[in-house]
Amino acid sequence: MGRGDLPARPRQAARGRLSVAKRSAGVLLFRRGADGIRVLLVHPGGPYWARKDDGAWSIPKGELDAEEESRACALRELGEELGPSAPQVDPEQLIDLGTVRQKGGKVVQAWAAEADFDPARLDSNVFAMEWPPRSGSEREFPEVDRAEWFMPAAAREKILAAQSELIDRLLERLGA
């Protein structure tokens, strides 16, 4: 078990209270081609991420609902973040990639699946937030504003630092 495989631990919150790390689940899609394996990453939408690129991308993932099973959450989030054109993935075919802990403490449980997706057909859910700050105006933004297939080396540059281990685990599981 590697460092990224640790279970969620309670952590100290403000004023000495314990809080449990937030948990997310997601699916790292991959495809094989003449040039090798490519992985699908998504770029978060919204004004705070608009000018960030390297180190900002992620696997399609989201927070677990109360009492939700991690694998079900991962598949639900795949559909929500990619939209109606998201590939239908058989839960039994998912490759377990374990967990990673992100810098802010969030624990991400991940699986991989071999499937294709056309990034031009991205149709992500939206979220609302006050923008600009303190303006009193609320605007909607897509949860994901871009999706793209990357070779593993490029994906490691684009993805959030803690999630890069998921790419390495996938390549190890595939013997690539």
Notes on the structure:
The protein is of the alpha+beta class and 176 residues long. The chain has a single domain, classed as Alpha-Beta Complex (Nucleoside Triphosphate Pyrophosphohydrolase). Strands 3, 4, 5, 6, 7 and 10 form a 6-stranded mixed β-sheet that branches. Strands 1-2 form a two-stranded antiparallel sheet. Strand 6 and strand 7 form a beta hairpin. Helix 2 packs antiparallel against helix 3.
Which structural traits does this protein have?
six-stranded mixed β-sheet, 176 residues, Nucleoside Triphosphate Pyrophosphohydrolase, alpha+beta
Radius of gyration: 17 Å
The main sheet comes to:
6 strands, mixed
Number of domains: 1
Q: Which whole number gives the mean pLDDT?
A: 90
Architecture (CATH level 2) name: Alpha-Beta Complex
Q: Any idea of the CATH topology?
A: Nucleoside Triphosphate Pyrophosphohydrolase
Relevant CATH superfamily: Nucleoside Triphosphate Pyrophosphohydrolase
Distance between the termini: 20 Å
Helical coverage, percent range? 10-25%
Content of β-strand? 25-35%
- Based on secondary structure, the structural category is alpha+beta
